[in-house]
Amino acid sequence: MTREAYTYELSIVIVSYNTKDLLRECLQTVQTEAAGISTEIILVDNNSSDGSPQMVETEFPTVKVIRSVINLGFGAANNLALEAAQGRYIVLLNSDAFLSTGSLRIARDRMDAHPRAALAGARLVGRDFSWQPSARMFPHVLSDALVMTGLAAKYPKSRFFGHFDRTWADPLQPSQADWVPGAFSIIRAEVLDTIGFFDPRFFMYGEEVDLCRRIKNGGYEIWYWPDIVVTHIGGESSRQMRDGGAGAQVVNWRMRSTLLYYRKHHGGMALLAKWLEVVLYRISALRNRFSSDPLRQARSRARMNLAAAMQSAWIETEGGRTSPPRPW
Fold first, then answer.
1. Mind giving me the DSSP string for 224-255?
2. Is the separation of the CB atoms in 96 and 30 below 8 Å?
């Protein structure tokens, strides 16, 4: 779709699933930071059962609420809002993420000053101001192996071992990156009109990586700007699913998305990505299997379950070629 003109400077898009209390806090910070900026706020509710959309309609009447009758996941839910958004820039914000003072103005001004920047992210921190990975490199089987074996965590200051999360870099220095987490990002709407929205085949995990790769393939830049600070709780919607007994499903979703991503962007390397996980899980299981420690025995069984889950994800996605029917 091509927009002839933009009604707003910013369209702030929030996807929520059973995060009512955090969503309220998120919207409060958004309204504070959006003061004086031409802004629309769009909430997409993924069929919450905690009264989230009713709360928004009552307490934040200016917010546009889109209700989905099923849990669409992250990318497809955002697409509903992107179709309707009328802002020059699109700000994607998690419902468990809170804007700091001046963050929206800084983000808008940075994008205005960098015309080749199609998408940019913020410095993500926890409530205790602890650092969260905020500027990352595209997945590769080698970097996956370094993360899974623990070597990336053991040598975070190494450019080689710390490649994926750029843990070697100064988090206070702006830089280009391959992709930034979807907890906060600001996107040039005209670029989305050119390269398309999120790939709906990704239900959860991998969708923002895929979008950033398509943006970079289009010749645009992805930026990380540390003076935009966003407090991010992290994984709240996923936790709601795990608390509801769907923990194994969350793991399965991540594995499916991994295979879909590798098949889409690296072809046959999807098979290597699959076997990397299966082999490493099996090695870990074997190391713990014959221990007399009940905890290590339990770890062995858990690792074998993960290996089996990846095998299942391979079958369910036909080796990363197809996405199972939504909702996953």
1. EEEEEEEEE---HHHHHHIIIIIHHHHHHHHH
2. no
- Residue 124 to residue 99: CA distance in whole angstroms: 10
The answer to whether 319 touches 263, Cβ cutoff 8 Å, is yes
Tell me the DSSP string of 207-219. HHHHHHHHHHHTT
The residue whose two tokens read 């921190």 is 125
Whole-number Å distance between alpha carbons of 182 and 121: 8
- β-bridge mates for residue 185, sequence order: 92, 121
> What would the two tokens of residue 44 be?
């997409």
3-class DSSP state of 14: strand
CB 131 within 8 A of CB 171: yes
pLDDT in tens, 176-215: 999 999 999 999 999 999 999 999 999 989 999 999 999 9
CB 187 within 8 A of CB 92: yes
